[in-house]
Design goal:
Pfam families: Saf4_Yju2. Belongs to the CWC16 family. InterPro entries: Saf4/Yju2. This protein is of the alpha+beta class and about 250 residues long. About 60% of the residues lie in helices and about 10% in strands. The protein has five helices and four strands, in the order E-E-E-E-H-H-H-H-H. It has a four-stranded antiparallel beta sheet with strand order 1-2-3-4, with no helix packed on it.
Length: about 250
């Protein structure tokens, strides 16, 4: 643990733009004073008077830390043939790759810096042309947005062959869908029109006699025919007997 002191701090000079400070403290063990100054040049503190600097090596193991070991180790012996081979490869790479590349870069730099005014004029001219094209396109887009009531933040695509083809395919797809919808509506209308007389005919058929009535009418007709065969004059036996009694 260290000891904290109340020090008299004052500026005593500068090292270039860095100030040099002096700290004068009173010892806590005696009545003596000691003075320490900063050393910006060597990035350290210097004891000027009243004390003596003490150099101590800090051991991590003694303070609960881990020991620091040399991880590099001894360098392996260098093989002279391997070193020569590496040097030869480096020279070949420098001669065959790096030197031609540097010459190309130098020629390009010379070409670009030969006439800076002409190059700048060409760039400005190209910029003005592109700006005019963008302004015309913006005016055309604004006209379309105002005409169809589109939002101003909507970005329109540039008209090219691909966009025209996609728009045509989308229009054809919409036309086919509309034709299918109209044909389905027409078929539905035809079905409704045909269904109306069928319902009326069914109502007429429902008013006809049922099969049970047919059987009863057939039975009555058979009995009537049988009676006619037994009495060809069309009169019943009871009526004949009554007539006979009256005549007697």
């Amino acid at each position: 643990m260290g000891v904290r002191y109340n020090a008299e701090k004052k500026k005593i000079g500068n090292y270039y733009s860095t100030p040099i400070f002096s700290f004068r403290c009173k010892c806590h063990l005696c009545d003596g004073w000691f003075e320490i100054q900063t050393d910006p040049k060597n990035t350290r503190y210097v004891v000027v008077s009243g004390a003596r600097q003490k150099d101590e090596d800090w051991n991590p193991e003694e303070n609960g830390g881990y020991a620091v070991h040399d991880t590099e180790g001894a360098a392996a012996p260098v093989d002279p043939l391997v070193a020569l081979e590496k040097t030869t490869d480096a020279q070949n790479h420098l001669k065959n790759v790096q030197a031609p590349r540097l010459e190309e870069l130098q020629s390009v730099s010379t070409q670009y810096n030969a006439d800076p005014y002409a190059l700048s004029s060409k760039v400005r001219k190209r910029f003005r042309e592109d700006k005019k094209v963008e302004q015309r396109k913006k005016r055309a887009d604004d006209h379309i947005k105002d005409r169809y009531g589109l939002p101003a933040s909507l970005s329109l695509l540039e008209e090219d062959e691909l966009s025209r083809k996609e728009a045509k395919e989308e229009w054809q797809r919409g036309q086919r869908a509309l034709a299918l919808e109209e044909s389905s509506k027409r078929r539905k209308l035809d079905v409704d029109v045909v269904a109306i007389p069928r319902s009326s005919s069914l109502s007429k058929i429902s008013t006809k006699p049922t099969p049970k009535n047919h059987v009863e009418s057939l039975r009555a007709r058979i009995l009537e025919n049988t009676a006619r065969q037994t009495n060809p004059f069309g009169r019943s036996r009871a009526a004949t007997s009554r007539d006979g009694l009256v005549s007697k």
